[in-house]
Amino acid sequence: MDKIILQQAIPQVFVGRTDIRSEVWLEHVQLERGKLYLIEAASGTGKSSLCSYLIGYRHDYQGQIVFDRRDIRTFSTSEWTLLRQRTLSHVFQELRLFPELTAWENVQIKNQLTHHKNDAEIVSWFEALGIADKRETPLSRMSFGQQQRVAMIRALCQPFDFLLADEPVSHLDAENSRVMGELMLAEARRQGAAVVVTSIGHHMDLPYDKVLKL
Amino acid sequence: MKLIWKLLRRHVSVGQFVGFFFANLLGMLIVLLSLQFFEDIIPAFSGEDGVMKNTYVIISKHIAAISGIKGEAQTFTDADIRELEEQAFTRRVGAFTASQYQVYGSLSMGGSGMGTDMFFESVPDAFVDVKWPANLPADEVPIILPRSYLALYNFGFAQTKNLPKLSEGVVSMIAMDVRLRGEGGAERQLKGRVVGFSTRLNTVLVPESFMRQSNNELAPHAQAKTTRLIVEVVNPADDAIASFIQEKGYELEDNSLDAGRATYFLKIVAAIVMAVGLLISALSFYILMLSIYLLVQKNADKLQNLRLIGYSPARVSLPYQLLTIGMNACVLLLALVLVFWIRGRYLERLWLMFPTLQEGATGTTILLGIILFLLVSLLNIIAIRRKIATL
Questions:
Q1: ipTM score of complex
Q2: How far apart are alpha carbons A38 and B172 in whole angstroms?
């Protein structure tokens, strides 16, 4: 997939409001493969909605969202499944990890589906992010910041053309945030993929190609 | 798969599944057992020679003292027969035809012999519960005797006279000499061979074709009179039969109606029991569906997260589908084991009552079990898949 295009898209709940000042909603926005985007948002501007639309979880918007040339409303369930396995990776703001599994199992449950990374690579990411000693710890016993790192590792265990990172560093310190940014970017560059980072203030310091205000 | 199961087994309620398991087992057991019991017992009731095969009743006219002397009014007219045929409870009517000539039967055994005057009757072949043998020599006539005659001889006559008891097989080997004497001294000498015993027909029976031919030959001028009718009825428990017979002043031979009622009653009971079993099965299926739905609902977040990281609905449905199929298979196996165990028990008792009873087939029961298993499993699979797809 090379392009994500939003044409006059707007969440249903915003329809009719006249105070929308957004560079995304009701605009023509094109996100291209290989580039790095930051979407800055204030609370309540529909950031999570945008991510939900792009991952095919919600469809309560007006206008059009197009992947390459296909309106995403026309995707079938199995097409979405394949997209989520091979084309579009997502670090959810609410993480969507499994608290009853260990950190390692949370990553494995994705990698067993995609068979994208070997154990050594995954171990090296755990080490780089400073949670190597937490691999066998049940997720429920990890802090949110630690969980965010697990979520990022999981998101990288698949081939993708676009990586959607919804506030990936909200609970990380500057150092960990920098390491995660580098790691994410390295993997994206290797795959020639685009990265779309969202933030409500605290964000990774990266060479963004474009910054959009939501 | 291991990880997915580790996730999705959360909230699996052992209590609910045990409840389903036993409810389904009970339902399946009742359905299969009632079917198997029916298969096993029904030959005793409705076989060719069954103790209670009786959708047939035999009707005669009441013999009153006066009419008996005058020799009238005991015969059925064509109008009587037509009226009977028109009744709703009647399937078909057959007339007894009596021989219009004298019959003398004699038996010689090792020099000493005995003989008696007797008679023949015939009914249409379709009403006879024993098969007439094909290809008997022309000078031999097949005869069917009532089973009660044999019992009367064995347990009454032979017992008190210290004579040997006769089995059906032995009687069938004896050929007796039969002399028919008709109008104007016309005579015919034949061999008579007992080819079977009837529980349905209480008379000395010969084939209808023989009767027609011998009556024509030996009593061409006599008018055959119908004194008894055999009626196949739709439902022997029908009250209309008894009231019709009473109204017309007819008489019913022995208690054939009661036997027929017993068969009919048995069929109804078996059907009711099976229906109850099916109902329990349906309810247990409902329990299973409810607990699966509850499980899916409780694990909705997990299932949704799995979907969002790229798992297909089929793949996340699989653990629950395997779970239900596994349980259904266990239920089927256990139910069949129980059915055959119980069957062993009741067959012993049945054989005491009906020593000649043949075991019924078991194929239908197993087949029904498999069909129920497949049906329930298929519905489970579809329902789970659909439920998960809505998340």
A1: 0.93
A2: 105
